[in-house]
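Kindly review both lines to help learners:
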Amino acid sequence: ARRVVVQPFCLGGFSVVDFQCKVLALHVQWVRRFVSSPSSWVSFMVFWFSSVLAAPPHAVFSSPNDYPVDFLPPFYRSLLLAWRACKGSFQVSTLGIGSGIEFCPISSMSTRSSYLLLLSDNAVSPHCEVKFFPLFGSLYWSWTWRQLFFFDLDRPVIDLAWKVSHGVLYTAERLASFGYDLSTSCFCSDPMESLQHLFFYCPLAVSVFSWVQSLMFLASPLCPTLLLRHVLFGFSSDELSVVPKVFCYLLNVSKFYIWVARNDFRFRGKHPSAVNVMERVKYRVRFYLPLFFRRFRSDRRRRFFVRQWGARGVVASVRDKVLKVHI
């Protein structure tokens, strides 16, 4: 839903621009210009506010809800409605937007701060929180969204993992629920290709994630056994204290190539192979991990990289300032 994708990454969105909020945020900047750097155009505002509302602009902006906007010209009507939407008022001897501890004085108000305030006022919980509650109970959603962007270079992998976590990936089960006439069986002959089956119970997924599990136990015996919730939604904050971050990326890459294998079978008649999927996962990790390593320049940062992204030498290590990937 658009009201979800416009939210920040940390709330399960994709930071797509909300055009209505952006327009309102741009309109509000005229109030800041009126207060901080007035010029000849201000006389028009004073004329219209005095003629139609019988009040000067400062009084209108101090209590915007007390004045009707129906008879103002379109620009000033939009300006006042935007000011209302941002909770503009007169507080602490100055004009500003927001309220309480979120109050932002007009002198420091920007289009960005106004836009973020409007987004926060219109924030909604993603539908997946309700959708998956009967199956998994109350999950760690804020950590689910955070994990998607631990490794922010590989956008196709992030996109797919985001869809999986939201439960909006077009599996056969989901397409059939829309009324499409198609075969709902999985390539393993299971009668229903659902999200849970494709990425966890299918023999292909079992083989791939067994390999990932073996790497996790090599890195740390304290790593949890992979469950369905781990594959779909990542790890909780407590689990991430013992699970190196690289395994969040490995899980997502594995899901990506399982999905590719599924599409190859459905649309090209190519039967999946667990060995082929694991080789493609390894190749992608070997390509992207050195690119990510370039961000870690100091010795301290590189030690952190080996712990979290090299899994203490299981996945990768640094020798003579050169990254060696071992999978």
About this structure: DSSP finds 18 helices and five strands in the chain.
